[in-house]
């Protein structure tokens, strides 16, 4: 597929406006060229996720039909072939791959990072079970932490700046842990469990989708989710000092997104066993307030640019590249 840059950019912008209102809101704070590349990367990530999950922009007409959501090896192969073509600047099969091709060319994105995302989708295809928190954190890195790394590079972070990129990875991991807690019951309906099995056993729950989605077990499942949200908070906190290493508008955007997404976890906590009766989300009015607060936090963090950041806590760390 050969498409001009404007067609690719317009498709990417439409994708983010439909697929993630929170990210679309935060990206308004970017400078135009940075926003374009961030939207292009998002469109490729979203497309890959949808191909593997059998969805369209994260939504599906049959959300509780497990057969429609079984990740297939042939879909992963399609993603691998076209992602490699995009990285190498060759012709590709769809606009999201063309978007990735533009991002790689414009930012000198190391190939290891897009390929690391596909490794996460390979885990889905393998239907891997996550026996403990460390195994889950590895998955969270591959499907979300590495997206934070790629976004940081788009924002101008040196690909060799491991300290800042580790903080960006921490934010992506926190986002994914939040996602997992929000979607526990929806995932169980399509026969998936991302909660660590050792935590389920600790609550006396057999780690099967039927047990997780059983309303009689909601209190215990919620306690497991709380444990993951506690872990997510460690990564949200660790990500904070990374903001000071970003350009000021990008720092505002990241701080805003951090506050908005972290609030989803607050909603899950506050609802208790009713956490999954209605999908946890943040109202537009609260999003705007949190985005404003994030900008203030970003400004405060940026004022400490020349100070050495605090030592990163002893958390799971992304693989060396």
TrEMBL record:
InterPro entries attached to this UniProt entry: Isoprenoid_synthase_dom_sf, Squ/phyt_synthse, Squalene/phytoene_synthase_CS, Trans_IPPS_bact-type, Trans_IPPS_HH
GO molecular function: geranylgeranyl diphosphate synthase activity; squalene synthase [NAD(P)H] activity
Superkingdom of this protein's organism: Bacteria
Pathway note: Carotenoid biosynthesis; phytoene biosynthesis
Keywords: Carotenoid biosynthesis, Transferase
Any single biological process term in GO: carotenoid biosynthetic process
Cofactor(s) listed: ATP
Similarity field: Belongs to the phytoene/squalene synthase family.
Protein name: Phytoene synthase
Species annotation: Parvularcula bermudensis (strain ATCC BAA-594 / HTCC2503 / KCTC 12087)
